Amino acid sequence: MNPLCGRCNQVVYPTEKVNCLDKYWHKGCFSCEVCKMTLNMKNYKGFEKRPYCNAHYPKTNFTCVADTPENLRLKQQSKMQSQVHYREDFEKNKGKGFSVVADTPELQRIKKTQDQISNIKYHEEFEKRKGGDAPLTPSSPNQGAYQSPAASQNFHFEPAPEPVRQAAAAPPPSSGKRYRAVYDYVAADDDEVSFMDGDVIVDVQQIDEGWMYGRVERTGQQGMLPANYVEAI
């Protein structure tokens, strides 16, 4: 049995049948609801199971909702629920925000440098205390001026009976290497030493490829210094 047309309710034969929008149409009846322009399967647009052309396709309009007391109450309730969920999540995740620091080669190098500096300072304090009992004369006035503040800052050991002998304590052990500064350098940290172009750096010890530890002969100050700012004598 042949179906009926969705527009004219007449029998639709197979040769003129169009099956679309859950209905059967004559090819001539399949037209826009507004302008009656004949449509096909490529240019039609369906709305509520009725065909429309592109120009007369119904547009969806937004509905304005008034701020009634009920709507305001629902809005406030939704906002409070959001704050409750946020606080719950915050309490659950509190204390779990620790960041794991990767053990990179740069961190390993810094750690190794700090360990070497600590060992150097420890041996310096040990040699100062060991040499404090022997009345040694400094080899130069600069060395004597250097030893006086260092001995007064020795908080880890009891002071020697004679302050004069503390000032004349033996200098730290060194490998005897001497370097000359080729650039001016200003210390960027407490464990570094400042110097000027032409200063002689004595008692130099290599820490790593980029840093050394030594004493400026002109000022008597000692600390870390960049290796590329000096040259061997």
From TrEMBL:
Question: Ranges for the LIM zinc-binding domain?
Answer: 3-63
Start-end of Polar residues biased regions? 137-155
Q: Where is this region: Disordered?
A: 126-157
Instruction: Give the molecular function GO annotations.
Output: actin filament binding; metal ion binding
**Predominant cellular place of this UniProt entry's protein:** cytoplasm
State whether keyword Metal-binding applies.
yes
| One GO cellular component term noted in the UniProt record for this chain | cytoskeleton
GO BP, sorted A to Z: monoatomic ion transport
What is the superkingdom listed in this entry's lineage?
Answer: Eukaryota
For whether the record's keyword set contains Metal-binding, the answer is yes
Q: Which residues form the SH3 domain?
A: 174-233
What Pfam families has UniProt attached to this entry? LIM, Nebulin, SH3_1
- Name by which UniProt lists this protein: LIM and SH3 domain protein 1
Organism field: Nothobranchius korthausae
Upper taxonomic classification of the species? Answer: Eukaryota, Metazoa, Chordata, Craniata, Vertebrata
